[in-house]
Amino acid sequence: MQAGTAPGKDFGKPRRIDADLSLEQPANLSVSPALFQKFQKLIYAETGIWLGSAKTALLCGRLFRRLRALQMDSLESYYECVSAPEADDERARMIDAITTNETRFFREPRQFDFLVQKVIPRWQREAESGVRPRRLRIWSAGCSSGEEPYTIAMLLARHLPAEAGWDVRILATDISNRVLNKAIKGVYPINRLSELPADLLHTFMLRGVAERQGEMKVKVEIQQMITFQRLNLDREADLVEGPFDAIFCRNVLIYFDTASKHRVITNLYGRLMPSGLLFVGHAENLSSMSLQLRCIDPSIYAKTEHKDNSF
Ligand SMILES: C[S@@+](CC[C@H](N)C(=O)[O-])C[C@H]1O[C@@H](n2cnc3c(N)ncnc32)[C@H](O)[C@@H]1O
Q1: Does residue 308 carry a catalytic annotation?
Q2: What is the distance in A from the centroid of ligand 1 to the CA of 248?
Q3: Which pLDDT score, from 0 to 100, does residue 29 have?
Q4: Distance CA 224, CA 160 (A)
Q5: CA atoms within 13 A on the CB side of 249
């Protein structure tokens, strides 16, 4: 099997943003258009995520658990609470509730095939000819519960191992504390092992036994390649120190409006090395961005400041 190709699965199908809408909200949990607009503005200001008016039911569904936890019975009361200047913690919990965190190992496997077949051999050639050091810096921006950065780390550990002198570090960031806590643990249900090719599974995953039965855990050597950090891409991307050889910002921008998408991409672009690569989700097109980016494969862009970035 080709490295990077998960067996027997089509991981690339588009999915509705509100597909995991909770159905357990009570019928009387409603939001007026005026209140919806207040939440819309607050969420946009906090995250860059734009909830269109068709997302009213989604908002109610996702905030219902916060209301229940706080023993509140209306979204008006919740808005008063969460919009108070000192309510930073509750705003973080609201963001945890609002964000869509769907992810998988080897999601959009075609991109990982490209990484293995085209990008890694090029990095190897450049290192062998002395054009680049054996050093790689990668950013998984919007990493959710860790499957994306762990996929990247396993592939790089397999093809560019530390024993061959490679120094590979991955920064993995997300705005949601809830998913970051999962990512840091690196523990996943064993029934998801079919997302990983058998060779990577056997080399880099541990199977839980006894009270850990039913789980698998990423090995420490892979975890040590990654630094997880909370970061708001819309507000703080410019604080990240680069430059990066590759940035993965996949299935994040679809939730943003044109302005916030533009802000984020411009910041990511500024953090790429002259020959750096930007991987976005298959539904995210950057052709309208007036940046020096060239599409080299579907949803993969190369910064064109570099003279030779042909693939
Ligand atoms: C659908 S997941 C995508 C995960 C992974 N990149 C993938 O493609 O499988 C989108 C992630 O973006 C994060 N996100 C949304 N807005 C963000 C922001 N302003 N800053 C950082 N992360 C954000 C969400 O919390 C969520 O975990």
Answers
A1: no
A2: 11
A3: 72
A4: 15
A5: 29
**Cβ–Cβ < 8 Å for 42, 78:** no
Query: Could you tell me the two tokens for 300?
Result: 């993969």
Instruction: Dump pLDDT digits (tens) for 19-36.
Output: 333 445 554 578 999 999
Any residues with Cβ below 6 Å from ligand 1, and which?
A: 47-49, 99-103, 107, 142-144, 148, 174-176, 179, 231-234, 250-252, 255, 281
- The domains found in the chain, sorted by start residue, are 33-98 (1.10.155.10), 109-303 (3.40.50.150)
pLDDT digits (tens, 9 = 90+) for 143-191: 999 999 999 999 999 999 999 999 999 999 999 999 999 999 999 999 9
Tokens of 311: 């693939």
What's the length of the chain? 311
Integer CA distances (angstroms), 35 to 5, 38, 73, 99, in order:
46, 5, 15, 19
This prediction's pTM: 0.90
Q: Residue for token digits 């002198």?
A: 165
